[in-house]
Prior knowledge:
The complex is a heterodimer. Chain A is mostly helical.
Amino acid sequence: MVEQVAQMIVHGEAWTIKDLFVLPNEYVYWSIQIVMYPYMTGLVAGAFVLSSLYHVFNVEKLKEIARYALVFSFALLPVAMMPLMLHLSQPFRGIHVLMTPHFTSAISAFGIVFMTYACIVAAEIWFVYRKFIVESVHRLNNKQDRSGLESLLLPIYKVISLERWTSPKKPSIPTTRQSSSWQRLAFRLPASCMAMPDLFSAQ
Amino acid sequence: MKRRDFLKNTAVFVAGASVSISALDFIDPKELLAANPELRWGFLVDTHKCVGCGFCVKACKTENDIPFEANVTRTWVERYVIKKDGDVVMDSPKGARDGFTTKLIDQNASGMTLVPEDEIAQAFFVPKLCNQCTTPACVQVCPVGATYQTADGVVLVDRTWCIGCGYCIMGCPYGVRFFHPVEHVADKCTFCYHRIIKGDNSACAQACPFNARQIGNLKDPNDPVAKAVMTQRVGVLRDEYGTKPNVYYIGLNKEVR
């Protein structure tokens, strides 16, 4: 019985107003969730613009909210994908879009744009918070009795600082000369965007 | 690293990489599998012969396990009634699964209408199925490549890979795609690919008592379908969409959408 009922219910039948449609297969499959997605994406992009106004365009009024807006933007990125994923009739297969992208499809192409955007926001968060991360490593390294949480945080900070910490006992700020060449390049990249000739001649 | 060294190393790397990459020959799997330039499936519908019995729809639903009661179907028959004042009334109750047994025309939410016989200028049936387009819109928009075109021209859906986004259903200009109520993935007419590759007829063509439906190889000049397409006055549906459909209709009216 249940099986028979399930076989009669067509996806979209519940909300399709069958007035203009008289043919079979004519159902509206894209509904409210497709509308929610651009709304959420609007919040993501808006928060990013807000933080950029301070970090890039130096709007001092937004200093207090700039960092928060950046993290907010990053945190909302996966949430913006949720309505899109839930609208799929096979939600667990949503990851296939990244596994076998088909670039003539707008959905797939936008998946690439979306991931690129995520990388940009993640990178900007790292640059903005790097000062805090390095300072935290020094502060926790110098602390004699670290609590459990602090002992947990210290290696995390060390990893996400993307820096080589020579000795945990003797904290020292590694200069660029001590660090390896790829790290040097990574740190030079943002600087090189602003002063390109500097990249090669500074050695 | 000096700028000179950097540029030199880059040039050496790019030159070396391009030589080795050009040695790789990427083989298209389609070239190996089922590549037969002598085969291109096509379909011929003679609307003069169709009486709207719905045997094709019934056969299709049975053959391809499409739930019988659900209002989705891989093939269906449309009834057109063109009035003398130019109005077009059309319907396809349950895809004409049970045939057209009444003169009442099902207008869905607007109820049933009856066109008086003295007002009718033309009345005819048009069977519909997937056009297996040469440039299919559904294949273009699938974000995961779960729907694809075989080398012999049939567009298929991989049920194990389809994510059910509905993009192909929205993209198809002919409305032949739908969500399978049980499998929960996009589904469409396959020309009964599992039968035709073995030399069988498609279920709908086999079930048609009047030979209104025929499937054939468009690249074989001796094939009856290819002959009819070449020698008779045939039309295709929605040519303006640029999908290059491969279902040809004899006796196609401009009113048919």
